[in-house]
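Why does residue order matter? Because the sequence determines the fold. Keep that principle in mind as you read this record.
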Amino acid sequence: METWNVLCSHLMFLWLNRFYLYSGAALGITLWICLQLVSKAKKQNGNQLGESSLPKVAVEGLAGGPKDPADKIHVAGVKVFYGSQTGTAKRFALILAEAVAAFNLPVEVIDMKDCDPDDSLADETSSKNVGVFLVATYTDGKPTENAVWFCKWLEEASSDFRVGKTYLKGLRYAVFGLGNSLYADHYNTVGRNVDKWLWMLGARRILSCARGDANVAASKHGSLEADFEAWEAKFLARLRALCRGERKACSGRCKKGKCRPKWKSGQEASEPQHEEKEEAEGELFETTSEEESGSEEREGADRVVDVEDLGDVMGHMKQAQKEHELDEGADRMGRLQRGRREEVRREMITPALRDALTKQGYKLIGSHSGVKLCRWTKSMLRGRGGCYKHTFYGIESHRCLETTPSLACANKCVFCWRHHTNPVGTEWRWKMDPPEMILQEAIENHQSLIKQFKGVPGVRGDRFEEGMEPKHCALSLVGEPIMYPEINQFLKLLHRRHISTFLVTNAQFPEEIRNLEPVTQLYVSVDAGTKDSLKKIDRPLFKDFWQRFLDSLQALAEKQQRTVYRLTLVKAWNVEELKAYSELVSLGKPDFIEVKGVTYCGESSASNLTMANVPWHEEVGRFVQELADLLPDYEIACEHEHSNCLLIAHKKFKIDGEWHTWIDYDCFQDLFRRYEQSRGAATFTSTDYVAPTPQWAVFGARERGFDPTDTRFQRKNKTKDISGC
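Structure:
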């Protein structure tokens, strides 16, 4: 009983003082919570301080792997595959490899011809390497020679149902294509196909396929090299992010990291290709064929809408329409700004092109012109003979200025002795220099080149002095001079200085030929007799190249001054087309036909010509005789054995039984002066300024076209200088 009383008294005491007990408990809990918060804050500050004291490279994770071996490796290395014809893609591959090596990542450059894709690509699916593919598009949209098998395997594997869509799953890749937008039908075809085939086999893009453009006027960054540099910067930034373990989640329909509304996806399919191209080059996303196909299936499943949801759907449509109108306004502003930027035209000669041409001995003028000393100029300065123009037309080779106001050309001929280092184009889209400046600097550069021969053993003093004053201008150095918009003014300036003009065109600009002012002698290159062989040899940029070719010959027939067909014979390519050539002669009615064996310019990755394609002089002679037999109004007039060249002339130049293929240059200058003063009323023809051909230059002469006043020099075991017109 007493125990119970004691317990009751204690409980009563607690009950009476319960307020104090509750207050103490609340205070204790509060103190515990505060201690926990303070402890947590100190721990976070300690972690931040530790991270800030680490080296920058360790934070970014660019050392090729984590510092702690237990951490995960995101990128094990980079493998760069290249397909190259002229060496540009290989050069880019080496540049990229050097940049990747700066990340301390293993990098390997691989020629596609040395790669078995069946084994090597499959191995990369689990290697954690990143694959880079630098591929050029060659003739007719085909791969380069070293990439043919690689591309064929990819194409066949991507369409083989036995391989499956996951064959290359795990491979991360990026593609940079090298092409020229002037070949519109085949622009970067190989690069786009390689990107598509890899994607179809389950590989994962880390960058959209980039399209480098060798067309300076249309290139997004001004040149192929600049396009590559811009893409390289994006790739390295993406690689840096991959090394840190970053990966952008994507359904396959995202642009620049943002998923697009469904209405926008459908809209983009109808956008012009050039706008899609510009947008695509800026994309940074990862995607596989599986993800994109899955996204399409999900989108298709969502297209069925319940009647109760129509209100929400209409609201979304109105909102989408507003966004669409805003985007259209932004697009119009963007196109306007791009148009304004295009008004500032780029220079034709890029820094890389300037270096290449300078190494070849060119003296570049302004932004699109050049001059170079012909080997026959050097030869005649030494009294060792002149070129075939000296034999056929009486020019003084040591006084000939070889130049061009346009380094660009509309063809990529297989026998081009410039190895296609010059730019190509179908119209003038570059910055333009005035003709007065071009001519003045051309003469000054020519004179500076002549001065280099002062004191050289064998150089004749009289010819050295004459060489300082050019009397003839061969507009055949490189490119297409007739493309220059101020070509007529340039010709007038030459004639006013009493400099004769020999202009060569590749028969792709008929209207320019018709609008051309009188020249001393106008050439058209007739490199083939049929459409197929012309496409094969000249590799023209124009789609309607054959019609342009025929129209150019018809335009030539309308000219009143001297005209010439220039035939270059390539054995096994165009020497069997005699009948076709004779028909072209009847179309253009030239005064003369020059037939010359192709000059072998050494091995070039841009052409597959060899010495076997060079005809012997006797073979050229037989071709010329057979061609002349098909042309009743023409005969063989002259020969220059040293140049492997013969001249067929119209019989109207055989006056009183004597050939008059030479030119009275003073008479031509007088005729042109009267023509200009009369504003074109005082016309003249090719027979108004003829001069008799010396006997040593006539076909069949013992000298075979070599001027007897000079001394013929035979080279012994020396590399032949093939420069010349």
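The chain is about 40% helix and 15% strand.
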